Amino acid sequence: ESWKNLNIPLWNPYSFSGNPHLANYQSSVFSITNLFFFVFPFNDAWSLAVLIQPLLAGVFMYLFIRSLKLSQMAGLLSSISFMFCGFIVVWMSWTTLSLAISFLPLALFSVEKYFSSKKIIFLFLLFLSVPLSFFSGHFQISLYFSIFVIAYIFFKFAETRNKMDLLNSLIFFALGVLFLSPQILQSIELYSNAPRSLIFQKIEAVGLYHLPTILSPDFYGNPVTRNNPLGHYIEWNGFFGVVPFILGIYAIFAKSKKAMFFLLAFITSLLLCLNTPIVDLLVRLQIPVISTSALSRILGIFSFSGAVLSAFGFDYLKKDLENRKFRKIIFWLFTVLGLFGALWLFLLANRTGIDIYPVAHRNLILPTILATGLIIGAIISTIHKRLIIIFILITLSFTIFDMLRFAIKWEPFESKDLTFVKTPIINKLLTLDNTYRTLGPYGAEG
């Protein structure tokens, strides 16, 4: 409304006795999705703002995977994995965290293409990706975005040893950060004066017992079905698909420095969110934002890296199936079987103190079926090269089914009539004199 009235929304007079608005970073005053509200009714604009996040994530991921000289099928697999991964799906309705991470593959695509083609247009694309992420409204995720992009720039320099490409990439990235100054400077001032800036504590570190949810997101239940006794479903969700995870394991055989870069990112991001002495040290370092925010949100980087590894794993496994290189394939098969065997043993020897068996047993069956089907498809493909199509079809269809099932279960599609639905309490409040104020939740604060 402020933008429509040609006013910069610096202040929100409707929150308490008034609050900073633009400086409150998660207000997303400059988010690209705000454009929808100039064109469409509120309900439609909000729906578009939510749904465009996985679309952008998928398109940008496909472009990045193809820039790595991987196959179209690998790009499609990786895109589906990332666009419907747990991190993006559970945060979609906020239109901040998911949007901020969606521009990561765009930035990496820009870096990859610039180092290979030297075209200035990719530097401008890199410059553009920085404010697109930061203006999305979640500084912590955009900070991870920045660290990852800078690390990839130096990785490309280590590959090419081209100092000019390194310098140009860093300059345009820095220009993107400079473009953020109207937002960042005010947010830093507000943050420095807020109590949150002094609260350094371990928040939302992922328990080791929660690792099974990487393969079975509903291992401990799901808030949607009201059977999630351990909680943390949103904050601790690192799911990016059963098939992509299994294929990502095969990426360790890829003789590619790029695959090793993403494997390192995959492992590092997981270690930085698990409840171990490593995160205790991280909190003690008292790094602004990182040491005051939920540690688990680096799972966005974990899921992205895992999706990229699945592309490498698919291409290299397909190649080895065609060339009948059985040694690596057999090792991979036994690794997958051992992993699922360990999951079932963990379930049977439950040590969490909560009776999780009925829910976990039911929700581990589907991942096991998907893994078994992929293994069967791989074994059949070793018989003859022409049968490789069976492996490809199983890989793609299982991934689409798994990711869409997960996403649709979490993100509902409802009638517009249910927006701001009238209830007896709301109807009563509307009859009160405007001088009256109300305080307290009505039982639906969650």
What does this structure look like?
The structure is a single chain. With 446 residues, the protein is mainly α. 60% of the residues lie in helices and 1% in strands. The chain has 18 helices and two strands. The chain has helices spanning 36-39, 42-67, 72-83, 86-90, 97-102, 104-117, 120-134, 139-160, 163-178, 181-192, 242-250, 257-271, 277-284, 299-323, 326-348, 357-381, 388-410, 424-431; strands at 11-12, 19-20. It has a two-stranded antiparallel sheet. Strand 1 and strand 2 (19-20) form a beta hairpin. The chain is globular, with a radius of gyration of 23 Å. The mean pLDDT is 91.
- Provide the gyration radius in Å: 23 Å
Helix content: 55-70%
Which regions are unreliable across 5 or more consecutive residues at pLDDT < 50? Answer: none
Name the overall outline.
globular
Alpha-carbon distance between the two ends: 26 Å
Strand order of the largest sheet: 1-2
Strand content: under 5%
Topology:
Elements: E1 11-12, E2 19-20, H1 36-39, H2 42-67, H3 72-83, H4 86-90, H5 97-102, H6 104-117, H7 120-134, H8 139-160, H9 163-178, H10 181-192, H11 242-250, H12 257-271, H13 277-284, H14 299-323, H15 326-348, H16 357-381, H17 388-410, H18 424-431
Antiparallel strand pairs: 1-2
Question: What's the quick description here?
Answer:
The chain is mostly helical and 446 residues long.
Summary keywords:
446 residues; mainly alpha; single chain; 18 helices
